[in-house]
Amino acid sequence: MNAKTPPVIRWGLIDRAVALISPRAASQRYAARIALGNHRSRAPDSGQCKLTAFDLATDTLFNDPNLAADALLRLGGTGPAQAIRVIRAMPDRFVNFGDGRFVVDTVLLNIRLSDATELSAGDTVEIAGQLHEVSGTPTRDTGRLVWLAEARAL
Description:
Layout: H1 11-21, H2 29-42, H3 53-63, E1 69-74, E2 82-89, E3 92-97, E4 100-105, E5 107-112, E6 124-127, E7 130-134, E8 139-140, E9 146-153
Antiparallel strand pairs: 1-2, 1-6, 2-5, 3-4, 5-9, 6-7, 7-9, 8-9
């Protein structure tokens, strides 16, 4: 491949990546294509695009103001705040205790690994003035792009 030749873009991969991450993000596919076009125009002369379709889809979702929100992360719950983007979900979960079954409020936070390379129990995330503490051990998705952390409101 010549150093000046742009990489071949397979749009089907980007469409599938966006659909896998969020089926309701079909309207964001066009934005992902524009972002890739902009990245390709800024790419170094190597001719290779370093972003994958999943990276672009994840960035598109986290940059959408309808899905994600600005937040502040404090490692260990103290120290300087780091600005991040968060997708917050608040599903109800059923918990069995003895013979009873209870509905429990939960807060699930999706945080990009590019925003927070480290995340552990006890870290705090402030979203729109509401403080949440990460409880339990956060997990990463299979692509190692997003943290999934369960949190509790403080």
